[in-house]
Amino acid sequence: MTAPETSIKNRPQFINVRVLRQDEPGAKSYWELHKIKYEREMNVISVLQRIAAQATTVDGKKVTPVAWDCGCLEEVCGSCTMVINGRVRQSCSALVDRLLADNPDEIVLEPMTKFPVVRDLMVDRARLFRSLKRIQGWVPVDSYYNLGPGERIPREDQERNYPLSQCMSCGCCLDACPQYQKIELTQNEGESDEEFEQRQNAEFDEAFIGAAAISQAMLFNNHPTGKALAAERLEALSGPGGITTCGNAQNCVAVCPKEIPLTRSIARTGRATTLHAIKKWFER
Amino acid sequence: MAELTRSQSFFIRHEFGIRRLHSLLGIVPLGLYMCIHLVTNASLMGGAAPFQHAVFWIHSLGPALPILEWGGIFLPLLFHAIIGVWIIRTGKSNTSQYSFTSNKRYKWQRWTGLIAFVFLMFHVLHLHGWFHITPWLAVMQPLGFAQFYPYNAASSLAAAMDQWIWGFWPAFYLVGVMATVYHLANGLWTAGITWGLWTSATAMQRATKVCTVFGVLLGMVALTAWWAAVSMGPADIAAAREKEQEMYDAAVATGLAFDDPHKRAGNDHAEPLSEVDVEAVIIEETIVVEPDSQ
Ligand code: SF4
Ligand code: SF4
Ligand code: FES
């Protein structure tokens, strides 16, 4: 990452920040305007820290601090993802000076649009993790016995896999995807947590799996040990909400902060599922 | 999730196959047929004769033609269109928020698909009529549909373009055919991703260029075909009708055409009439014969 442009001549004294807030899951959301003092080289996280510290809107009304999520502060955990000035991205790597260069009037912060809001800017991305389970996004090793040294990975495969391995499950690719629709269920009265989770998972498992998991399936199918599950992954991707739901809008690849070649993974999945289907047909 | 109906669950269980079939049918037979169709029609630019010749050749299939029409064109088209509408409903376009080119292409692919659907439904009704059953035609022809007579190909096509309010059909066809050309050219590109033909970003860019060139060429063919059909005046139509008559006589003599009055303009009542048909046919006659007398 390069240093932010510091050449802005007329530094503002204050920054207006418009936040889309929501008090609890399922509640109505509402806008709130905050004003904080400008400091040099802020990112959106530091803006949110100031907002939480003052907990007062622009017209002097005392409010609860705005809630948000963050972890690594260096764009590798994905937890701080939100919609900033209309575009989904990480708030830790969203630099205020750049945002102001694009829109000097205000910074607009909204929660991600495809996941249920927990509170304010925090969302529940359980569906994303469920999608990784759907494709068994792991290398199947249990440590019951020694498997011996692993297979050598050709350089070509390493180069193909490394970019895919950088996915941090942030969900940007899903938020920007026109084929990925929000699923938000509420627990029924008398429904146990387990029953609710089961119902939710059933719903998740038939909805679009999304670019991130498709790409992870290609990562593990190209891994010498991971490929033991290749057929099962392709089977999952050929099922409901699998690869065919993709409409090739290619927003995913355009917004992925890790610049993961998602559309390549999607096309590779298209090819692999084609061959898988033909193979299955003749093996019946 | 609410209880699924049986057809919904059938759809979900076979989604992969159904959507791959949707993709395949869009190319073969539909895309391929569209190319042949447009090239055939563009031959009208060279006069009524080459066009009539091509149509004779197509219609020499005789009784096998309706089977080919339904099995090879109409049914695949209906399948592609109905599944297409379902696909559109699964998406929610967001181009105002993310205005990337590929995202706009995604949106246009859906819009042109819808336009093409409406266009083709009316196009087939307008010229072909969908069903060649006498009672059906007796209703449709007076309404200005089923206007194409294969053995008077150029003249009946040109006359049909001139019906209703001036300029309606030409404008309708121009918008419809251009939307369909876009839908095919862009659809080839997405099909290449769907089937995994082009996978890398550079390959996709190259494929975009190829599909663009294809689209522009097919668009020019389509424009030619369109102009050939809409630019014929009354005098051209009369001249074409004469030429067609000559060719018809020769074609019947050589066995290329059958003596089928249904395929001839203003002539489809030569066969014995059943009682029910009489009244309808009389209405029909007054209208269908009209372009002749000009
Ligand atoms: S693929 Fe990119 S955008 Fe999608 S979850 Fe992974 S890192 Fe985020
Ligand atoms: S290419 Fe597919 S996964 Fe990516 S944004 Fe478009 S529809 Fe979604
Ligand atoms: S805090 Fe980890 S990506 Fe922003």
Automatic annotation (TrEMBL), chain A:
InterPro entries, per database record: 2Fe-2S_ferredoxin-like_sf, 4Fe4S_Fe-S-bd, 4Fe4S_Fe_S_CS, Beta-grasp_dom_sf, Helical_ferredxn, SDH/FRD_Iron-Sulfur, Succ_DH/fum_Rdtase_N
Protein name: Fumarate reductase iron-sulfur subunit
GO biological process: aerobic respiration; respiratory electron transport chain
A Pfam family of this chain: Fer2_3
PANTHER family assigned: SUCCINATE DEHYDROGENASE [UBIQUINONE] IRON-SULFUR SUBUNIT, MITOCHONDRIAL (PTHR11921:SF29), SUCCINATE DEHYDROGENASE IRON-SULFUR PROTEIN (PTHR11921)
Organism: Allorhodopirellula solitaria
NCBIfam families noted in UniProt: PRK08640.1
Keywords per UniProt: Iron, Iron-sulfur, Metal-binding
Transmembrane segments: none
Family the UniProt entry places it in: Belongs to the succinate dehydrogenase/fumarate reductase iron-sulfur protein family.
SUPFAM superfamilies referenced in this protein's UniProt entry, alphabetically: 2Fe-2S ferredoxin-like, alpha-helical ferredoxin
Required cofactor(s): [3Fe-4S] cluster; [2Fe-2S] cluster
Phylogenetic classification of the source organism: Bacteria, Pseudomonadati, Planctomycetota, Planctomycetia, Pirellulales
Lineage top rank: taxon: Bacteria
Domain (4Fe-4S ferredoxin-type) ranges: 156-188
Gene Ontology molecular function: electron transfer activity; iron-sulfur cluster binding; metal ion binding
From TrEMBL, chain B:
GO terms for cellular component: membrane
Record field: transmembrane: 21-40, 70-90, 111-133, 171-198, 210-229
Statement: the UniProt record of this protein carries the keyword Ligase: no
InterPro entries: SQR/QFR_C/D (IPR034804), Succ_DH_cyt_b558_Firmicute (IPR016002)
Keywords, in A-Z order: Membrane, Transmembrane, Transmembrane helix
Top-level taxon of origin: Bacteria
Protein name: Succinate dehydrogenase cytochrome b558 subunit
Organism annotation: Allorhodopirellula solitaria
